[in-house]
Amino acid sequence: MREAYLLYRLRGGYRRGKELKTLEGLMEVQTAAMAFGGGVSLLFLKSFLSHQHHKYQGGGGGNLPPVPEVPGLPFLGNLLQLKEKRPYKTFTEWADKYGPIYSIKTGATSMVVINSNDLAKEAFVTRFDSISTRKLSKALKILSADKTMVAMSDYDEYHKTLKRNLLASFLGPDALKKHRPHRDALAENISNQLHDLAPNSSHKAVNLRNIFQSELLTLAFKQTFGRDLESIYIGDLGVTMTKDEIFEVLVLDPLMGAIEVDWRDFFPYLSWIPNASFEEKLEQMHLRREAVMKAVIQQHKKRIDSGEHLNSYIDYLLSEAQPLTEKQLIMLLWEPIIQTADTTMITTEWAMYELAKSPEKQSRLYDEIQSVCGSEKITEEKLCKMPYLSAVFHETLRRHSPVPILPLRHVHENTELGGYHVPSGTELAINIYGCNMEREIWEDPENWNPERFLSENKSIDLQRTMAFGGGKRLCAGAMQAMLIACASIGRMIREFEWRLKDDTGEDVTTLALTAQKLNPMLAVIKPRN
Ligand code: HEM
């Protein structure tokens, strides 16, 4: 068994501290393009330019002007200008120079980038019918099992059915009520672990991420399968995996895999050229995830066959939903696990980082909690009475939007945005980070300042900051994320005083597909009386 496990690891099973590859990987595109040689490049350049020319002259645009272009290079377009690991920053800088909507070329693909709230709303609602599909990168195609999940599917009947299922059993108001004991257990467990660590935290700082992430995974398993999972034998791989290892296969690997760059994404007409190492890496990731999910599903199918039913997503999908293929079942059960374990943790960690950095704001929040709860526990019912806590949550989503660029949308018929003609075949990037940094809407946007939401004098709706997207593709888990993050932040501030272990100034660097803090927050915590 141990040998099989070692063999599996050697084949690339787990890699900690692996090198990040985002658009930095575009450098490889340059190398690849050079490798094809000048003659070939010129040939493609000619066909590329003629294609672009026809697109912009093509029908459907009426008299509307084309979207302003960011100047780039022939053939490569703007690829080399996107080497920065955080393209949302580059997009936002370009918005200052070229306006809130512009078009860029990533190789042979035209992409329109939107950086303002009004334009995003236009794309979410008014023009949605022309922009409701997705054209996935090679990596996302493999990892989403070719759109077999809610978030990556086109907006069609399949998507609507899946989203309905998810809301009915997992994330809608009734389902959230039923899963309440699991969220309460999460808050309780985090509190207990922090109390255990507090006495030594001035020597050994507390890494909230480790605790929170593991509890979120527990929650995700309870909601998806009815109970937590400590370890499991994976028949297809011949190994037993611990919870940490399962987390790596189900959450960390796919998050990293999703940002792997295959140069053929930028030059679709070169798709016939093999890129075996890329495909093998992603396929391995997919197979490992599938093997783990299959093992867990098998275990629970046996439970259900034996007559034991639990309040869980798998019980719902197998009894109430229309029949699903094995591939669909695997993907639908995996999706909320990765979604639960990632963005809520990112938001909570950023909020706690900002509060630990700012003793006055921390005190203000503590005073609010005390005045509402007195000697009683914080419960979800009391959250609506705490406007400052809500403001902390929304300001964190604004300043540190966990999904800084929405998954790309595909324009499938000629349309318009902001008074410009956008031809069919264009990719659309909605830069949520850019929208949340828009100076006309947010004063001093770089500054994390929850007070800005208090002056609004009205309740804050979940779409105020664009962090959950909008329209028909609005995040299905927004309410769950809000409940977990607010209840946990409230409880952690109520029970402890937080300060950063090393307050060495701003540390707002991010990592990966979602805007995870690059360096985990390390804090010293002191129990309050
Ligand atoms: C703070 C936490 C979260 C943030 C900021 C967030 C953000 C987002 C964003 C930006 C989208 C894309 C919308 C689009 O493409 O237009 C999305 C989609 C989605 N999210 Fe979340 N999310 C969070 C938590 C969750 C949780 C906890 C779940 C489930 C357990 C979840 C489930 C989904 C699903 C299913 C979709 C696809 C919706 C669709 O395509 O119709 N999210 N989320």
TrEMBL record:
Family, similarity comment: Belongs to the cytochrome P450 family.
Alphabetical list of CDD domains matching this protein: CYP77_89
GO MF assignments: ent-kaurene oxidase activity; heme binding; iron ion binding; oxidoreductase activity, acting on paired donors, with incorporation or reduction of molecular oxygen, NAD(P)H as one donor, and incorporation of one atom of oxygen
GO cellular component term of the entry, any: endoplasmic reticulum
Annotated residues for binding of heme: 475
GO biological process: ent-kaurene oxidation to kaurenoic acid; gibberellin biosynthetic process
Protein name: Ent-kaurene oxidase
Species, as recorded: Deinandra increscens subsp. villosa
Listed InterPro entries: Cyt_P450, Cyt_P450_CS, Cyt_P450_E_grp-I, Cyt_P450_sf, KO_chloroplastic
PANTHER family: CYTOCHROME P450-RELATED, ENT-KAURENE OXIDASE, CHLOROPLASTIC
Lineage: superkingdom: Eukaryota
This protein's UniProt keywords: Heme, Iron, Metal-binding, Monooxygenase, Oxidoreductase
Cofactor: heme
